[in-house]
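Ticket #4471: structure output looks truncated?

Reporter: J.K.
Steps to reproduce: submitted the chain below (214 residues) through the standard prediction queue, then opened the result file.
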Amino acid sequence: MTGAETFEFFRRLAEANPSPETELRWTNPYTLLVAVVLSAQATDVGVNKATQALFETVDTPDKMVALGEEGLKQHIRTIGLFNTKAKNVIALSQALLAEHGGAVPADRAALERLPGVGRKTANVVLNVAFAQETFAVDTHIFRVGNRTSLAPGKTPLAVEQKLERRVPQPFRLGAHHWLILHGRYVCKARRPECWRCVVADLCRYRPKTPAPAA
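Returned output as attached by the reporter:
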């Protein structure tokens, strides 16, 4: 995809959705961090259901540590891998208190040192909570990047690096949201809905999926 095509790709996504944002519900950088950690191999809808009551009373690392691992499990049992995730959330909360005064650091390296936090999670937090131009490559962005030829790569990091080089201003801050939402609702894994895609003519995917019969 050429530079002009990439600009037009994001221009159309931005026109269709001028203010993209995460579908995870959060109230501060800490609850966002917890929600993103919990969202691994889980849906945003499922995480939001599990954290609705949790975040009403537990919205800081000290409150989470006071709740404890078993208490947290009672809230997140409906989420996949909840045992491991509960352990990580308590551990990262303890680390935030011990190493950062209870604040979530606006630094990728510091975030990645927290238990259960990888590059994708760190990128989401940096982008959403701290308005940094990062590209959090999940399964949706990996698929869209490769399928469209916007940012082809064999690994999430390779796709991220392509996006870092190719996404132009003024679209860099919202790019990962547009791509996630596009992959989630239009460029779906099993059957992309090419017939209603606003960037279908720019996309290299062939053959285009026809509209279902009436």
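Triage note (M.O.): checked the attachment and the full token line is present. The mean pLDDT is 96.
Status: closed, working as intended.
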